[in-house]
Amino acid sequence: MLGLGSVVSSSVMSGQEVWNLILFYFREEFAFYIFIAGLIISFVLSFAVGANDSANSWGTSVGAKTVSLGWAYFFGSVCEIVGCTLLSGDVIGKVVNGIINIDAYKSNVTKEDIANMTLANFTNYENNPDLFLEKEKLLAIGCFSVMLASGVWQLIASIFSWPVSGTHCIIFGLLGFTVTAMGADGVANVNELLQIIAGLFVSIILSVVLTAMLYGPLYKYCIRPGKPFKIGNRIVYGIIAGLAVGLPVAFIVNQTEKAYGIFPDNLSKTTILLISLGIGLGVAALTTILSIFVFLPLIKNMKGNLALDVNPSDWLKSKKRKEKERAEKAKQVEMQDTNNPAVIEITEESLDEMEVTKIFRPLQILSAINGSLVHGGNDVANCIGPFVVIFYVYKDGILPVGKVSAPWAISLLGGVGIAAGFIMFGHRVIKTMGTNISEMNSSRGFCVEWVASVIVLCATVIGLPMSTTHCKVGGVIGAGLVQGLVETNSPKMALKYVNFKILLGVLLSWVLTIPMSFGLSSIIYLILKSILM
Hints:
Blueprint: H1 15-52, H2 55-63, H3 69-86, H4 89-98, H5 111-115, H6 134-159, H7 166-182, H8 190-223, H9 231-260, H10 269-301, H11 319-339, H12 348-396, H13 408-436, H14 442-461, H15 468-488, H16 491-494, H17 500-532
Helix pairs in contact: 1-6, 1-12, 1-13, 2-13, 2-14, 3-12, 3-13, 4-12, 6-7, 6-12, 6-17, 7-12, 7-17, 8-14, 8-15, 9-10, 9-12, 9-14, 12-13, 12-14, 14-15
């Protein structure tokens, strides 16, 4: 510790002045450095989550050729940032307060202790470790260790194209550090922790079942028989479109109220939830009617496949250059037809398939956007939750009473990091999710994305961390199996519609995530503790 004589005079200092001096040295000698390091590693962790988890929202859309990779990057980045800043408060609070027993890391310093402090406290450090915030130092080191361990493992997984769960990484990392530091006393609430862990494993089963329940009847009775624009199918597709728009609206209204209080203060939480659902249902009903009588007839008469694969650079090309490129493409097609006289016959079945694709591509884009929003609202807690704790340790020394919440600027930092990771490395996991596990088309991709986003949406509303990775992979499995069952009428043959070799690698990466996150955070914590303490 620096010499006191160079900082304070021999005059009598009040207890508060002594405490401010303790906080000054705490920040200068420890907290500032762990804060800066935590800021950097929090961004790196957000980057890793973007490179791995965010890709899950767009893997099926890109795999089904509904959107190009560039447009996936654009929409995904914007929606992730919006979700992080507006919709994430409940889950961040659950990650921070539901796993670590924050009270076990609070130094026993009362207002009376502060009022009675004297300079003599500095010379009696051995008998007053709480005055120098030793427990808070352990907490800050532990949270930094968790972020570092999680970031390292997720980046390794991204290199091997494994869609690991960022939620798994952070939860078991927090658990590893706090058990190492405090034993059972470091765990906040065992029942709540078990609830969080159970949700992670139940999510994949739930997504398999719900995706199969949605896609099975839809494929058997609406898609496979053909005639996608007949009135019965239009009603079904219209209802699906209404729900795809209405549910996210209700979610956004409800979460925005929690963050910014857009409704009067005298309204209860139940009333606000009902109002949010009412607004969502109203939007859903309006969207359903417009889809049945306006949008679907327009889509039927539109030319092209409605894929969002336009290159923005094309807009900058001159009219003459565009016409020249079209002429060259037409000449290439003509030469191919001349060399191969067996021209492909356009059958009624292929026309039906193209029309189904036209219907589901806009829906799939909506579901992917929704998936990015709820991913940002749920999974940003995995990136910045531990850093929020470090921020308060730096700012106040002793953590505030009650639950810790994230400042808006830190949520924004997480969103920007996720967007950057998604743009730079997301294509690896997009390939695994979009094509390798099971063949993807627009209708199947929509069902996978929409069911997964609804599951994560519900979890976000109640503040429960949920793995978007598990939900998406479960949805891909469920849709593939149920289509195989409809096509072959044989459970055994239906298994061929899922690439279990790829799936086995994904499941193995999930299993490895638990001990790797737990062990890495524990080891890094012990190393840093021995260096910094």
